């Protein structure tokens, strides 16, 4: 077991060392509150013991001290709970699959945990429009499986799909491996049912289950990516794309990052509308996979960069011809050291296993400092070099992989043991560097607790005030997920 | 000339007959104000005479009485203007190409007109990411032309592309003919520069020119589709898709609307990722084109519905094979009365001419009552039947065409002369019918002045209050585009 309690506390202190917020003057949960909640959701759905799994995030980086987890199963129950919390000024943290990486879905102090996993009753799909309407508590993979039986798919896919819930995906604007093709969730969320923590516990339908609706301010988009700060998403209307009938994967070796950019440019040209993923792993990622997981690259040229490219289309023969033509072009023009086209599902699955095991493999080095940044492509890999230069041999490995097609780099620095020195070298250096180079300090993971103190970096001065004013409109008592994105 | 002044006034009275709002206690423009504006934008860019083109919309449905049009050329100038208007409580209406259909871009009373067409200096494009950054005053077609020289395109296309400005497109969340493929503007707008009408005339960058940015509330989406109620968009970061190298059009005749739905379902299956448009025109549309424009359908079977389908792809041979296979399937299964595949650009252009001339052709009947609604497909064409039954021979024609692939119907009722009787038959009947059948009273045209009184129909009770509270955050004096979407 890598994380014991002491270790856990140390790591938490590290990551919030700049400013641990004080507990705000919220109410303190009483037996009367618990009784009220039991009336609303039933005694079996109020949990006041053995709460560790809900108080902690799955990385064991953050731990709150909530005394109570509630499991509502309808918007009406959520409404009654939030109205009560509003009236009694009890702080609340909405929790979906609790698969986040920034401490957003666990309490900081004693917030009531509103776990949404029982909110999974309503499901309807219209195959003529591709519009899914469902409760927020469905597991992403379950929705995807259901849609595939009708020839459709969910417009997002990510590592945590087996346990994350769609409501959490939406409230964090989750990204993942096919954003390049299907767009971010703003492209696909048509409407949301949201419960507000106001005096009425208002249940509000924002947007609609229609592809086009210009009949008012498009307020549902405010809840996409606002990490549960403004309301609790209890249902969604989602535009689902047709599922591809042909999926092809290929791995391509490239020696320079500039070369990777050239391959991306030509992938867009040759593969056009069928390009669905463009992932990068650097040599350090591959070394880590070999050393820690005994997984070997399918490429034999030991390239500095391995690009995992996927196409999704509706006609296998056409797609294969396009990919073949693209790979031949790369070889003829000496743009790649070597390339492997997956011959079947097993080979394809293995390529994806390399990519998807990368996050796990680095944890086996000891301790990991994780970054999830967006950068313009001309600076994408420079960051890795800057960190290597700054940290030298004080760190074990500097590993970069990520969704290159989206400009999203997952930079990871590993050490054998947690180290204040390395922490001080990295924070706020990496964030400052990213902002100075026109990037974002959070591409897809969000702000949560982890990046709270950096969230305003590089932004227009009044953004914070506007966000606080907006929060006041939807959450007048400020009880939703305090101490996080909007402070 | 179809519209004389008398006529114009009558039609305006019709369309806002339910509740003409009173002028609010805003300031009245003085010579001192004009002097201030001249200092900011230069004397040549303040216009106080011959303002008809700016006070009226292009359909001649609405006319305001502004005394002053300003032509700023930078965010800083817009800022100085809005700060002054805030301080003096002068109402302002932002105006882009003034091509809207709901009276949103013209003043209702004496609002200062902030015309944004000179805001077209900054333009930059990153071909590695496909991200365009530009001022809000560029003409849509000009941006599209520029991007095409680099192998990219604008993610939207609409009839007014030669005169509408991108800022107006964004603030109205314009739809158009390829939304099916490239998504609505929420899918493609990554960031916005907005000037707020607050005490500072704050210039704020919301979002960023990055494909993924989860570093705060995604506030830029609030301005997409809010019709200039919350701030003035002066610049945008836009994700541009690669331009297709192969575009194919086909017209297909179908006898029943249920048959059209079946064709759409199979188009998604056979054409998958290359399907870029799916438009419908009913028999009345074709009759109108023949009688008023002497344009004849390319289909010889005189079908009840003509479907115009377009594909956009990266490999002509593959696309042609897919379309051929699809058309053969339709014929073999007797799903179409006949079909024509455009053999060349001229034939394709003619098919689109039919579709794009439809809005003009109906105006030649005399007077037109226009509706732009979203409906679930199972009710899409029922509306036309309901209107025919209700109006009988009191109307000349009931014409339906639209973006069927998006569930967006353009229903048009024509009469020889404007008629109170017909007006009373249609309003609010059509809106009520649409709401009762799960649709939206505005799919893409917006609310503006035209639908102000109906905007809350079918919505959650507190939506209006929330919108007003949001407006208060961004526009504390309520000076931006009053008497329209948010009242």
The tally of helices of chain A reads: 16
- Please state the overall shape of chain A, judged from the principal axes of the Cα atoms: globular
Question: How many strands, which pairing sense, and closed or not: the largest β-sheet of chain A?
Answer: 7 strands, antiparallel
Instruction: Kindly state the number of beta strands of chain A.
Output: 16
Family (chains A, B): Belongs to the FAD-binding oxidoreductase/transferase type 4 family.
Catalytic activity (chains A, B): (R)-malate + A = oxaloacetate + AH2
Keywords (chains A, B): FAD, Flavoprotein, Oxidoreductase
Protein name (chains A, B): D-2-hydroxyglutarate dehydrogenase, mitochondrial
Explain how this protein is built.
The structure is a homodimer of 487-residue chains. Chain A has helices at 5-15, 31-41, 52-55, 75-88, 140-148, 166-171, 179-182, 257-271, 283-293, 316-332, 345-363, 377-380, 382-391, 420-426, 429-436, 463-474, and strands at 46-47, 69-70, 92-95, 112-115, 123-126, 131-135, 189-195, 203-207, 232-239, 246-254, 275-282, 305-313, 338-341, 367-374, 397-403, 408-415. In chain A, β5 and β6 form a beta hairpin. Among the domains of chain A are: 123-239, 2-Layer Sandwich (Uridine Diphospho-n-acetylenolpyruvylglucosamine Reductase, domain 3), CATH 3.30.465; 244-346, Alpha-Beta Plaits (2-Layer Sandwich); 365-445, Alpha-Beta Plaits (2-Layer Sandwich), CATH 3.30.70.2740. Chain A is built from 16 helices and 16 strands. A seven-stranded antiparallel β-sheet of chain A has the order 13-10-12-11-15-16-14, with helices on both faces. In chain A, strands 5-6-9-7-8 form a five-stranded antiparallel β-sheet. Chain A has 487 residues and is α+β, with helices and mostly antiparallel strands. Chains A and B meet through β8, α8, α10 and α16 of A and β8, α8, α10 and α15 of B. Chains A, B: GO terms for molecular function: (R)-2-hydroxyglutarate dehydrogenase activity; FAD binding. Chains A, B: InterPro entries: FAD-bd_oxidored_4_C, FAD-bd_PCMH, FAD-bd_PCMH-like_sf, FAD-bd_PCMH_sub1, FAD-bd_PCMH_sub2, FAD-linked_Oxase-like_C, FAD-oxidored/transferase_4, Oxid_FAD_bind_N. Chains A, B: One of its GO terms (cellular component) is mitochondrion. Chains A, B: Its EC number is 1.1.99.39. Chains A, B: Belongs to the FAD-binding oxidoreductase/transferase type 4 family.
């Amino acid at each position: 077991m890598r994380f014991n309690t002491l270790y856990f506390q140390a790591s938490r202190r590290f990551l919030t060392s700049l400013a641990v917020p004080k507990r705000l003057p919220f109410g303190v949960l009483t037996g009367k509150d618990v009784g009220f909640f039991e009336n609303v959701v039933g005694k079996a759905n109020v949990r006041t013991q053995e709460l560790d799994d809900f108080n902690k995030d799955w990385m064991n980086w953050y731990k709150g001290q909530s005394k109570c987890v509630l499991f509502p199963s309808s918007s009406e129950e959520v409404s009654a709970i939030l109205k009560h919390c509003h009236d009694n000024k009890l702080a609340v943290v909405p929790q979906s699959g609790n698969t986040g990486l920034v401490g957003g879905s666990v309490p900081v102090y004693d917030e009531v945990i509103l776990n949404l996993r029982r909110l999974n009753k309503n499901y309807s799909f219209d195959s003529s429009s591709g519009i899914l309407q469902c409760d927020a508590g469905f597991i992403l993979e379950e929705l995807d499986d259901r849609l595939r039986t009708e020839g459709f798919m969910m417009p997002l896919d990510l590592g945590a799909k087996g346990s994350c819930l769609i409501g959490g995906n939406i409230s964090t604007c989750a990204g993942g491996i096919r954003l390049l093709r299907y767009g971010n969730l703003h492209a696909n969320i048509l409407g949301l049912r949201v419960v507000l923590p106001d005096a009425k516990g208002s249940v509000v339908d924002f947007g609609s289950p229609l592809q086009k609706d210009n009949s008012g301010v498009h307020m549902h988009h405010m809840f996409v990516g606002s990490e549960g700060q403004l309301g609790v998403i209890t249902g969604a209307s989602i535009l689902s794309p047709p599922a591809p009938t042909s999926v092809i994967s290929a791995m391509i070796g490239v020696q320079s990052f500039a070369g990777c950019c050239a391959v991306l440019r030509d992938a867009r040209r040759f593969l056009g509308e069928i390009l669905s993923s463009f992932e990068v792993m650097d040599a350090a990622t591959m070394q880590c996979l070999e050393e820690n997981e005994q997984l070997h690259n399918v490429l034999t040229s030991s390239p500095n960069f391995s690009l995992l490219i996927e196409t999704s289309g509706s006609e296998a023969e056409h797609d294969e011809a396009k990919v073949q033509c693209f790979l031949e072009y790369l070889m003829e023009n000496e743009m790649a050291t070597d390339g492997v086209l997956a011959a079947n599902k097993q080979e394809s699955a293995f390529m994806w296993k390399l990519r998807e095991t990368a996050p796990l493999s680095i944890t086996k080095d000891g301790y990991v400092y994780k970054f999830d940044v967006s950068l313009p492509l001309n600076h994408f890999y420079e960051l890795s070099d800057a960190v290597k230069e700054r940290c030298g041999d004080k760190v074990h490995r500097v590993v970069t992989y990520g969704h290159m097609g989206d400009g999203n780099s997952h930079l990871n620095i590993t050490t054998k043991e947690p180290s204040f020195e390395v922490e001080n070298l990295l924070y706020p250096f990496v964030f400052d560097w990213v902002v100075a180079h026109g990037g974002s300090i959070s591409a897809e993971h969000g702000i949560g607790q982890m990046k709270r103190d950096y969230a305003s970096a590089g932004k227009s001065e009044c953004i914070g005030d506007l966000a606080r004013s907006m929060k006041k409109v939807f959450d007048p008592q400020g009880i939703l997920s305090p101490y996080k994105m909007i402070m």
